[in-house]
Specification:
Layout: H1 3-20, E1 29-41, E2 44-49, E3 54-70, E4 81-88, E5 94-101, E6 112-115, E7 123-135, E8 138-145, E9 148-154, E10 160-165, E11 176-183, E12 189-196
Parallel strand pairs: 3-12, 5-9, 5-10
Antiparallel strand pairs: 1-2, 1-11, 2-3, 3-10, 4-5, 4-7, 6-7, 7-8, 8-9, 11-12
Length: about 200
């Protein structure tokens, strides 16, 4: 992995881990902005959110863009560190909505299972793969983390991604983004990272 890729991966993963563990400045509320770029100029990013609202986000000094690349469930092996968004299924188990394979350098960072807002009742679990099982019904992962264990099934078609680099030039109007942001008391939004869709891979988280 190149130095740029390592830096980009660290920034993306650090951002996601900070969100999943609820880490944010005590004076600000964490807001995860999902949607399409309306405009990007200077340090201001305007996004049409999935809820249909317009979010104006001030990008902090030193902010970094990153992207994602397609991966395969067959690439996941015991010992890997992953972030999986899941929801309860009808049979009382957990079904994956998306899987992010973290770089080896970030293994063990921010591990745990936390509430997430991709869908109602969804959870983000950052954990080490203890067992990867393939059956006629698909795949399942046994994830272990401090204080717990979770078995999550992965249906065919579930987005599986890993980290990838991006540049400011990738922030074009109409492009899908995921922007973990902080909302100040006056309602303004700011962020130090933007995960942008690139090469046909949109942020699934």
């Amino acid at each position: 992995m190149t130095s740029l890729s390592k830096l980009t991966s660290s920034l993306l993963v650090g951002g996601l881990l900070a969100l999943s563990t609820g880490l944010a400045a005590h004076a600000a509320e964490t807001v995860r902005v999902r949607g399409k770029i309306e405009s990007f100029q200077g340090s201001t990013l305007v996004v049409k959110t999935r809820e249909g609202e317009t979010a104006k986000i001030t990008l902090k000094d030193g902010w970094k863009p990153s992207s994602l690349a397609k991966a395969s469930v067959d690439q996941i092996k015991p010992g890997d560190f992953v972030g999986v968004t899941s929801i309860p299924t009808a049979d009382g188990k957990n079904g994956a909505l998306e899987v992010l394979i973290f770089p080896a350098s970030m293994k063990g960072t921010g591990e745990g299972s936390y509430a997430w807002d991709l869908q109602p009742n969804s959870t983000m679990t950052n954990a080490t793969v203890a067992n990867a099982v393939k059956s006629v019904d698909g795949h399942s992962l046994t994830l272990t983390y401090k204080g717990g264990e979770k078995v999550i099934s992965i249906a065919d078609g579930t987005p599986i991604v890993t980290t990838a680099p991006a540049t400011e030039a990738d922030l074009k109007a109409g492009t899908t983004v995921f922007v973990p942001s902080q909302k100040a008391d006056d309602g303004t939004l700011s962020s130090s990272r933007v995960v942008v869709g690139k090469n046909g891979v949109e942020p699934p988280m």
